[in-house]
Input
Amino acid sequence: MAIEGSNTSSSRRIRLGMVGGGRDAFIGGVHRIASRIDDRYELVAGAFSSTPEKSRASAADLGVAGDRAYGDYVEMAKREARLKSGIEAVAIVTPNHMHYPVAREFLKRGIHVICDKPLTSTLADARKLVKAASSSGALFVLTHNYTGYPMIRQAREMIAGGELGKIRLVQVEYAQDWLSENLEQTGQKQAGWRTDPARSGLGGSTGDIGTHAFNLASFVSGLELEQLCADLDSFVEGRQLDDNGHVLMRYAGGAKGMLWCSQVAPGNENALKLRIYGDKGGIEWAQEDPNYLWHTPLGQPKRLLTRNGAGATASGQRVSRIPGGHPEGYLEGFATIYNEAAEAIIAHREGKPAPEGVMFPGIADGLAGVAFVTACVESSRRGAAWVKFDSYNKG
Output
């Protein structure tokens, strides 16, 4: 199990800071757990909230020293860059509209960035961040955590190895039900910012979960999107952003795809599902049962592949922590991204390339995600017209 981290002298814990993720922030806790699962990071500083008082209170909760608790991310970036033992990487877990200005401050000081998705709330900011990351020399990691699941890595390897033949069809969906009512009007924090265009950006369900579905389909299939047409809806009365989207996709090489994202589908908790079919077979995977991958070679019975079980491939095994039959899931998927980032950061520290096999979503994936949302919104506004993806996905 090569992913297990050991706190050796050559891989001492990476000093990690965090912006956002204070009290009552769901995703901040997820990132902190993920950063510690493989013992590769130590949280030493943070601007956890928008006010100094709240940030200090959150720092105290987390055992971060008071003099490393900041009320402003600019102050944090400047001071941490000057400290001999300042942070080496920063996790950004704020609402979407803050990703660009926060990341920019740390990148220009050479501090590695681990950012929650989507990359930014606007395409203009995404393009500016691509340039900032390119000129920084620091690493940029985007936490599309589902790419860290072992069976997703195995599916990607199988497709790249030609086991499905020429890909014809990509079907991906991400359905939830938690926004089926006007939850944002109750003061619920997560619903509040996710349905607010000023903080979330152009996309509602498309930005929140549609980007995950799009990224996963691209990651596993290896296909490049050329065109899409989208029909987006805001079914809940008064909601400003979409809560349901249907997207048709045309890929380079002739493959066709369909993507459905919804947060108003009762009975669905976190139903991310992927099906890919080629001329030699197909695969099926569901996030709520992530340790299993169905593979059907053309003309043969469907077979079930299990994480670390018979038929497991090297790419899946290297990101598995425990024997088969013991569930791994959401937190471990996040931890895989953090662990892969740690490998790259340590190599960067030593002036070496990242070890073979290390992979994580980066700035190009982030730009593609924001371009996807922007293209979907534009297509829907034009009556589900076909739009060229490449015209949006340019840095």
Observations:
- Residues 330-349 form the longest helix (20 residues).
- The radius of gyration is 21 Å.
- Residues 20 and 48 are 4 Å apart (CA to CA).
